[in-house]
Amino acid sequence: MFHNVTGMPTETLIRNAYLVLEAQGPQPHSGSGTGWEIDGGWIALQDGRVHSVGTSSEPEPQAQTVIDAEGRLVTPGLVNTHHHMYQNLTRAYAPAVNGTLFQWLTELYPRWAVLDEESTYLSTYVAAAELLLGGCTTSSDHMYVHPRPKLIDAQIRAPTEIGFRFMANRGSMTRSVEDGGLPPKEVVQDEETILEDSERLISTYHDPNPGAMVRMSLAPCSMFSVSESIMRATAELAEKHDVRLHTHLAEDKDEDTYALEVYGRRPVEYLEDCGWAHDRTWVAHYIYGSAEENRRLASAGVGATQCPSSNMILAGDTADARALREMGMSVGIGCDGSSSADSADLWAETRGALLLARHSHGPASFSARDALNMSTLGSAANLGWADELGHLRPGACADLVIWESSPLSQAGVLTDRVEGWLRSGPARAQDTFVAGRRLVAGGELQLAGLDDVLSRHRTAAAAMQGVSA
């Protein structure tokens, strides 16, 4: 264990907690594999980092702020590895709620074509605030609709103001309906514009240093909506700047047919040929890869994101997280866009991952700790951030959650706090810390501008949906 040897007060001490400092998971991409938990322990935070931890029998450091967790569960902050935040402007949009993936995309693309800087900022702010209440402290976002320039600049303003850790995915689409794709021409861009803007965003916002609050990755949307040349050029640009790559892959059965007809290859073969099969890549959904393709991507270091609620709402299949993890692939969790999942709640997605794995493989196949490992260390590995995020070992970023303990839902949970947390929900964050800052306190967001943002968001959402506010 570790204790304060300087005698100087730390900034924050959380005591009397059930600490999950690292969720147990399989080797090799999910931490030590053994996990690290302390019942009745304490954790001290200083300068945005985990300063020290200890058991109840070890001396606690002095601190400027002391929080008694009263026996509550404390975990690393959850990490969201796939989202489309702007889509909360069309949350539960009635004409699209019962459609298939392609049906709701076709219905909603024209609505998203009116996206501007104001609505992008507002939707990102709302998404980050909602994620904080669900215990999420870091999120990536796949922003691929660009009807106007500098939308990602507007997007980055929101988490920066809040103090939320963020990886902006500079998405792109080049192929409109006129070129055999799905989106209207208003939301696609030419390759030169995409690459120039990608360079600009990386040079302006990407922070490769430890403790970064904003990082960039490059994220062509999917093989349905971008050209092969932009896939290749984006991979080269990402290698040049040492940033990560993200895209949708093998999400729909029709993708196989499309890939064979257009590219003469299956989706995974196409990804490999475009220079994406390496450890700086993570892919969203990844449902329909063959066993051999799964092994190849796992061996190459490619990660995958499972989006449980989105897949179930769209009545599709889902990534086999258990099988992929057993192959050595880092598998994280994402809530996906609000137009399919309709909720930015990483606790709910973590529970969904638990249920899906057990439904497919049996009751002894997957535990709450496996699911928590996915939404912490697995997700952090997806983002290339597992050195600092997804665990609470001393020196890690001070991103953590004290979970609310509902007297009713937790009544009778006496033998396993982690299983009780995920089985006996719903659960909300009692306190959420990002870089040591308490952004949720007593279950309430500490965001002075939230009411104004919600009012403006309603106006923007009504305009986008063509209804009265």
Automatic annotation (TrEMBL):
Keywords from the UniProt entry: Hydrolase
Domain of life: Bacteria
Database matches in CDD domains: ATZ_TRZ_like
An MF annotation (GO) of this entry: hydrolase activity, acting on carbon-nitrogen (but not peptide) bonds
Keyword Hydrolase included in the entry's annotation: yes
Protein name: 8-oxoguanine deaminase
SUPFAM superfamilies: Composite domain of metallo-dependent hydrolases, Metallo-dependent hydrolases
Gene3D superfamilies, sorted: Metal-dependent hydrolases, Urease, subunit C, domain 1
InterPro entries in the record: Amidohydro-rel, Metal-dep_hydrolase_composite, Metal_Hydrolase, MTA/SAH_deaminase
